Amino acid sequence: MPESPSSRPAWTLSASSPLRKRDLVVVSNREPYVHSRTDDGIAVERSAGGLTTALDPVLRRLGGTWVAWGSGDADAAVADDGTVRVPPEEPAYDLERVFLAESTVEDYYYGYSNSTLWPLCHGDLGRIRSEPSHWPAYERANERFADAVVEGVEGGDPDPIVWIQDYHFALLSDRLRSRSGLPDAATIAQFWHVPWPSPDAVRVSPHARELLEGLLGNDLLGFHLPAYRRNFLETVDRLLPGASVDREAGIVRSEGTGSSEPERTRVYARPIGIDVSSARRAESTEEPSSVFEDYELDPGRSLLLGVERLDYAKGIRERLRAFEHLLETEPRWRESVTHLMVAGPTREQVPEYRRYQRRVREQVAAINARFGTDDWTPVRHVEAAVDWERLLALYRAADALVVSSRRDGLNLVAMEYVAANAGGTGTLVLSELAGASEILEGAIEINPYDVAGTAAAIDRALSLEIDEADEAQERLESLSESVRRHDVGEWVRSFDREVRALATDAAARGDAGAGCDSG
User: Fold this and answer.
1) Is 43 exposed, middle or buried (CB count within 10 Å of its CB: 0-12, 13-18, 19+)?
2) Domain coordinates of the chain in residue numbers?
3) Is the pTM of this model over 0.85?
């Protein structure tokens, strides 16, 4: 099995770290390792995605338990009572799989999570699709995960840290509080990886109150950016009259908003970042020249790269319109640039995603039919999965990367591109609507809804690499410094500090409950 991007973490935690001294339980929808049946037997693969890539080294280093949906068709076959030790080549922690009925997956994951919460949080209210079966399934899934977490901590550490990830589990902390098997001194924390929208957007949901009360079951709640934190606190202030919000301190006192919430929820902001040392392993991976050969690209032409899921939030159609406009208005780029678009299908069970993916393919075909020649295809669309080594080679081969998100919690692809090219060349074109634009300095920023402006930014980025190498290098150096300051190790350390602060605050109040550090 090829080495994962997360297998050699470079960051460390202090000896007094709560994460080192207490049992850690991570909860996510996606599992870090998937077992699948093949013609040769059972194979195991590491899951793609920034969340699993970021958290796998944490559990490798600290040990603990990762609770996740068992999505592989051979997951149950290799598990002992639902649990398997991972990574397979060097077991370091327990992966506890939660098996869900197909109907629950359909309504909880493809339904409420990705047909309601995803468009709601990304400001695309017109794409919300709600069926009567979605919300009850979301509740059932959160209940099922609560049972699994309690089963995993019973009889163990008297003050475990439960770290819940993302929007699939807005109700989970509250459900955990109602379980008698959860130790009283447990710390329950959650990180919300997608944007938190304005109060007016949240109130569109008929379950807004339940979502907020569920999240306030956490001792600690994290967001990527201060803007998301402000939006959340404002939402609680406006939609939960019984809650008391201290916006400056980021403290919500939630007595009276439900039967099982803790007294206080501490809300903080810190972007996740990437494992910089892993991306910089690019020098030891396959050569960029292999990319040109395998994807039938001419190395004499400029290469414009896009890497994302086929997801409407990623602004792929907007970028294609801008690329077409560039070819229309700047004929010098015809037969001089290729847009390589690595974008595989996702969430195909959701009708809105199927429609969007079909339209993207039609758009690519139309651009190629209009401008393509016998020896030049303007847009090459790769839908097959790309492994980490190949992705690093793509990053290094590209003259520019375009991130055109209509809305994005952060965007780790932009950070990976910068880290892979540190000390080399490459220009980043970045949507100002992606959270990463708040922390990365040196990108050429775009509004993806501005077709002409995005086309001009692509023109500028490609021209920099050809005509103004000094400015391109300065931009990349500035971006590299931004990425170094916000690596995944600092994200983990910031969580560690927040857990420590909970214990300090609890001790000052004489509270022996949530958040107390046993060491």
Assistant:
1) middle
2) 276-485
3) yes
